[in-house]
Amino acid sequence: MSSYKVSFIIPTYNREELLKKTLLSLMKQIDLQLGEYEIIVVDDGSTDNTADLVKNWEFLNIKYIYQKKRRVRIGRARNLGAKVAEGEVLIFLDSGIIADAKLGIQMYQHILNYDDLCLAYVLGFDKNNENEKVIKEVVDLNNLEESIKKLKDLSINDMREVVYSDIGDDLTKWPAPWALFWTACFSVSYKNFHTIGGFDEWYTEYGGEDTDFALSAYTKGYSIRVNKKALTIHYPHEKFINTYTPTQLEFMAELGRNRRITKYPISEVELYHKVGPWQLNKLLLEK
């Protein structure tokens, strides 16, 4: 029997201030008592004050795991968090994801009802920090409800909303729902995560591990959904992708492409690498 209803798992690397914002939001969860959830911070080799920050939050049933930095190992970090988790439902959040007060209970109830993979709705989630100035002006951690309302009024949505609005947000009707499975925030039961096999730790640079995880789940028969009532805010920050040169990104993309095509020899995966994630499902639905 699980010790908690929910385990929040946060991989981090030199994101002290962003992590603080995430922890502050998790402290304000309603409909989940403090004793009903735990927080697991997996530090991928930070050299800032992340460890000291976490020590100040021990009252939140917090666990801290540190692994020495050996390239980007976000998949391994998430797996380590899931390994020590004691929650019935795992909710993965990136550092800087600010959780609505009802995120925990929304995700928990969704998994109880559907037993699938559940994407949160991430306001302000964009590619190049297009709305950075506005988001920083609008977001008030002491009044998240109003902050969320303002972001919605300004149409600062989840960037995947373009596709949701175009072909519908019932991902169970999509032929390739894994294409837009990006792990800013998602949930899955503890049991299903380990049955799926966790994240592929082959991915040791930026990106790819989330799409691979979704593909693994989908090809094993698990559904993927988005819960638009499970709200979060993506607080702007420097993106790891910008630390790579175009040549490095092209090389990593080629390696990831070969990995996925080999692991998942289905036509949708080949088409995904030709047309990209944004058009894939629309093209498949039009066939």
Automatic annotation (TrEMBL):
Pfam families: Glyco_transf_7C, Glycos_transf_2. InterPro entries: Galactosyl_T_C (IPR027791), Glyco_trans_2-like (IPR001173), Glycosyltransf_2 (IPR050834), Nucleotide-diphossugar_trans (IPR029044). This is Glycosyltransferase family 2 protein. Residues 172-231 form the Galactosyltransferase C-terminal domain. It comes from the Bacteria. One of its GO terms (molecular function) is transferase activity. Keywords: Transferase. The lineage of its organism: Bacteria, Bacillati, Bacillota, Culicoidibacteria, Culicoidibacterales. Residues 7-140 form the Glycosyltransferase 2-like domain.
